[in-house]
Amino acid sequence: MVDSSVLELALGPTSGARRANCERLSRRQAGCHEDDKKLLGELLTLRPAPSDDEVSRVISIDLATWRRNPKLAAVVFRGLAKNRSTHLVSQIVRIMLDSQFGTNVLHYNAAISACAGGSQWPLALSLLSCMPEGRVGADAVSYNSAISACVQGRQWHLALHMLRNMPAARVRPTQISCNSAISTCQTRGQWPRALDLLDSMPLLRLVPNSRSYGAAIDACQTEGQWSAALSLLGDSLSLGAPADRISYNSAISACEKAGQWQVAMNLFSRMSCASIAPDVFSFNAAISSCEKGCQWQLALQLLSGMPRRTLTPNAISYNAAISACSQGSQWQWALGLLNFMPGLALKPDQISFNAAISACGNADLWRLALKVLGDMRQAKVAPNVISYCAVIKACETGNEWQLGLVFLNDMNRQSLVLDEFTYNAAISACESGGQWQLALSLLESMPQMRVAPDEISFNAAISACEKGREWQIALSLMTCMRVVLIKPSEISYNAAISACGGGSQWGLALSLLTNMPDARVMPNKISYSAAINACEKGCQWALALGLLYTMPLVQLVPHHIAFSAAMLACISCNHWQHIFGLLDEMLRVGVEPDHCISAALLT
């Protein structure tokens, strides 16, 4: 029998409308769902922010069947969520409450689940908090759905709060509760919480399953915590919760992010031993690990092996392979893969073009890098900050500092936000071109553009001053680094020592070298060679020899630059008697005389 109250709602102004509504109601109560799409369409065609009365008129016929069968409401709720109309889900639940519909936990669960599926965690939590108002007690499904909504919104703190509150609400957490809470810990810096949650499951009398371990491994993957990921993978196997494909993929990705390409490839190989067939995600993570390890041949081997496993490489696969070739300075392969993508119905994106531009820049092919940038624009792919940074770097290697500054100005005209990487590339381009004034101007402009200079920025500027024989400014920059709490590195010291040497300030050069250990920066071969060179320019042959013979005492083998500078110091001061001793020492440590030494000896 049809409820009389519902029939009253269904009555239309005409007999035809009454008959249509009654027929629709009869079909719904008979279990016929063909009107679901029609109802969903009517709801979706309502004006934005419809009133409760407008929504009530649309759903009035279906309320009776929803009361008896909440699954029918769930179908409509899911449809609204898929169409990004979860606000209507919340509104319908409120209407159901106001009309004393008799809403139960199943209706709430359907609504909360729909909000979770629509990535609307605020609505999901709002519905959960409203359940006591409707005198409906939440169950495990209610909490699990709300926690799942927090996974999409990366709201780990709210997920953990709900998990802790479940016992107080007399709801026992389940595996799903804990697994979902662990999944929220994929947010940056929260992987230790994921491990704590996993460890706490036995205290709740819950046995972690494959999904529990998989969620924890995925949390470790986010920050490249490869050792923790491997430990979890081993624990899952030993505790009878065999790792699945997702767990392996996450562990491989963790190794990739940490630059552990050998471990990543070992895991990839173990998948087959565990009777787990790698999928596209597995291959992509493995290829990306090869990129980090500059293993371009292995990356190409993996890419070519995908079709043999009936797997179709996607844009991510090719991007990772192009990046691997870029890291290995294999520009021909990088461009070949880029040009091959359209033939496979794969559209190159910013990552594809950026990697190809970098490959050309790494090979000192700045003209080719500019051509790829032009191809990028022709393909209607907008260059981004990374694109311009790669082009400016290519200009640096080609000593085309003017072009580098042109592209920097282009970025400003296009309102692209310049970052420290872009500035560093431009400063380095000016340094390569001997334009120390422009390098300093760029460095000084960084704070005005709200970009904080880093160690690379200062090092490039100091090197520019070295080339410009501006040793005073180089030393001032070293002081500035300390003021802004940037620790000078060995590169900073080496450039400053060279600058002092170029300015015939051998005393300052030696002072910098001597002070390096106190600053917890250990001198290297370049440091000593620069100091020896400074002594040579200051005709301090004895100091030059002293520094050269000190190098083995600090576990450093002098190279030809150090020997060349020491020999020139002796020759310029007419102390030829030391030359043969230096030649013997060169032969002893296996250093071949270069053209500078040969020319000095001939003179």
UniProtKB/TrEMBL annotation:
Respond yes or no to whether keyword Repeat is given for this record: yes
Query: Which chain positions lie within coiled-coil regions?
Result: none
| InterPro entries (UniProt xref) | PPR_rpt (IPR002885), TPR-like_helical_dom_sf (IPR011990)
The residue spans of each PPR repeat are 139-173, 244-278, 279-313, 314-348, 349-383, 419-453
Instruction: Tell me which PROSITE patterns the record gives.
Output: PPR
Q: Which UniProt keywords apply?
A: Repeat
Q: Which domain of life is it from?
A: Eukaryota
* Keyword Phosphoprotein recorded: no
The name on file for this protein is: Pentatricopeptide repeat-containing protein, chloroplastic
In its UniProt entry, the species of origin is given as Polarella glacialis
